[in-house]
Amino acid sequence: MDFEFTQEEEALRSQVQAFIKDNLTPEVLADLAGGKRGRGFGPRAKGIFEKIADRGWNAIAWPKAYGGQGGSRITQFLVEEEFYRAAQVVIGGGGTGTPAVLASGTEEQKQYYVPRAIRREIIFCQGYSEPQCGTDLAGVRCRATRVGTGADAHYVVNGQKVFTTNAQVATHVFLLVRTDPESRRHAGLSILLVPMDTPGITIRPMYTIQNNPGGPPGTTYGEERTNEVFFDDVKVPVSCLLGQEGDGWAVSQRGLNLDRVGAWRYLISIKRDEDFANWLKSDDPRAADLRDDEAVRDKVAELWIEAQLCRLMTMRSMSIEQRGEGFTYEGAAEKVFAPEHGVRTTEAIAQLLGPHAQLLNGSPGNVQDGLYAHNLLSAFQSTVNHGSVQVMRDQIARKGLDLPKPRK
Ligand SMILES: Cc1cc2nc3c(=O)[nH]c(=O)nc-3n(C[C@H](O)[C@H](O)[C@H](O)COP(=O)(O)OP(=O)(O)OC[C@H]3O[C@@H](n4cnc5c(N)ncnc54)[C@H](O)[C@@H]3O)c2cc1C
């Protein structure tokens, strides 16, 4: 197996690195960090996104027919890697919701949504979880009732979602609803792409532990806010249905799998290894004391080996996506190993730094503006969101090891 990038890909990496050096000024980075924390991207960040789109970098792997470059997923990965490492922003690929539209949308939907998503005129948030069902998504109760006929046919949506991250800045929600009231569990569910400005939608903020004071740029985990979203008699045209009515479980699982893939996925979990290694090389006197300690060097090396494994697992998912094959257990394995590595790293760094590791952004004596303290507070949530590690382990046991379902 050859893990090297081609000469053309390495040349592209150099171009992207030069772009980052020239364009991601401290002011732009601050704008990008604010947007990532759910405050909306400011004009400087938007200007950068336009420049990136003009170069075709956030849609390298998507088909030309919808505004992409028709290139390879691996090349896209390389661009994602550079931008996430520099500014913790997700460029193209997974995490944007758009791969699900490409996988399950009608021709009209692809023509409408994909080019706009590339330009960030359309931003999706994900409306799966409900107060009584997060892991157990098949228990979804949010209802969409089909009424009217012909040109007047539409759904009326009633229900509640929870943990809908970025609902306050999104233009559309990927909404998992029950369209067949008689159905149970996985049957009778559908996905609707609902514009967030539709009358009857109410967004209520839920602030996270990251909120006050907010983490400094470089904090990879956790937005400062997620949301509850309420739907009261929300009228949605049937043209907003993604895939077939009643096929929402398959559409959403396909979408979630594709959304879990991307360089940002592993970098969320390993960026601290890189930050800490760089800090150890700095002229902070605390760093000099630590880097001379054999035990510290051993620990950092051990975490670094794990970090390389996280990257390789992401690259395996990339190649599977590139070959157009579905995941069996590979995405789940990545979703267990990388977040748990992130938790192990934040805990290990906290122990190595001692009391300084507890000091948040703005506190005198902190290390790197409280970067490690903020990551320590919120690393754990990455083992829960996008599918918890316990449930992912169950998928690995069944689909990877072919174990039968446990007897009840
Ligand atoms: C910061 C954050 C952002 C999020 N953003 C979004 C978003 O944008 N959109 C969205 O739809 N959702 C989002 N979520 C929700 C997330 O997907 C759910 O929290 C997650 O699926 C777990 O569901 P739950 O919170 O209901 O916990 P529960 O399902 O109650 O699970 C609690 C614990 O029990 C374990 N557990 C549950 N069932 C089983 C089982 N059968 N076997 C073994 N263990 C089990 C779980 O692994 C977990 O550890 C977000 C969550 C967080 C924390």
Question: Could you describe the 3D structure shown?
Answer:
This protein has helices at residues 7-23, 26-39, 43-54, 73-87, 98-104, 107-118, 248-259, 263-280, 285-291, 294-322, 330-353, 371-378, 389-400, and strands spanning 124-127, 143-147, 154-162, 172-178, 189-195, 201-207, 225-237, 241-242. The protein has 408 residues and is an alpha+beta fold. It has a four-stranded mixed β-sheet. A four-stranded antiparallel β-sheet has the order 2-3-7-6, with no helix packed on it. A hairpin with a 6-residue loop joins strand 2 (143-147) and strand 3. It is globular. Bound molecules: flavin-adenine dinucleotide. Flavin-adenine dinucleotide binds at residues 125-129, 134-136, 163-165, 222, 226, 381, 384-386, 388, 390-391, 394.
Considering the chains and any ligands shown, give keywords for the structure.
binds flavin-adenine dinucleotide; Butyryl-CoA Dehydrogenase, subunit A, domain 3; 408 residues; 3 domains; Butyryl-Coa Dehydrogenase, subunit A, domain 1; 13 helices; alpha+beta; 4-stranded antiparallel sheet; Butyryl-CoA Dehydrogenase, subunit A, domain 2; globular
Tell me the overall shape.
Answer: globular
Mean residue pLDDT = 90
Largest sheet: 4 strands, mixed
Q: How many beta-strand elements?
A: 8
Q: Major sheet: order of its strands? A: 1-4-5-8
Bound molecules: flavin-adenine dinucleotide
What structural class do you assign from the helix and strand content?
alpha+beta
Number of domains: 3
Oligomer: single chain
Helix/strand order: HHHHHHEEEEEEEEHHHHHHH
Distance between the termini: 42 Å
CATH class of the largest domain: Mainly Alpha
- Identify the CATH architecture of the largest domain: Up-down Bundle
> What proportion of the residues is helical, as a percent range?
40-55%
Strand content: 5-15%
